[in-house]
Amino acid sequence: MNYETIFDRYLGTLHATSAFYRIHVFGSKGALEMRGDTELLTFDLDGNVRRMTYDAVDKERAELEAFADAVAHNVKFVIAPAEIINTVAVTEAIAASARNGQAVTIP
Predict the structure, then answer these.
(1) Considering the entire predicted model, what is its pTM?
(2) Residue 105 domain-assigned?
(3) In a domain, 85, yes or no
(4) Mean pLDDT, rounded, of the chain
(5) Residue 106 in domain
């Protein structure tokens, strides 16, 4: 399955306060479902399901180490600065919308 071709339609995520979470991506040619940190399922339009498992990784540590490397060695961080700024803007807009019950436009 070509993963690049299924990310063009919809991204939904559900995150609860438990240790379990999942991200489910729906596309025009299939879907991906990530269950927790170690399990990925792929679904194609013919009903075929493929399950892959991965070793658990301390993702917060890996991200902080990558950031430290970017700063110390003046290399690109895995997330572009504009994407970081957009994430903060979206988070602030969500909070503002929740407070006032109105849609918020992000400039």
Answers:
(1) 0.50
(2) no
(3) yes
(4) 83
(5) no
Q: In terms of C-beta distances under 8 Å and separation of at least 24 residues, what long-range contacts does 91-97 make, across chains too?
A: none
- 21-36 mean pLDDT: 89
Q: Which amino acid is at 67?
A: F
For residue 40, the Cα-to-chain-centroid distance in whole angstroms is: 13
- pLDDT digit string, tens, across residues 46-72: 999 999 999 988 888 988 898 899 889
47-64 per-residue burial string, b: 16 or more CB within 10 A, e: under 16: eeeeeeeeeeeeeeeeee
Q: How many separate domains does the chain show?
A: 2
Residue 36 lies in a domain: yes
Domain that holds residue 64: 59-100
Same domain, 49 and 77: no
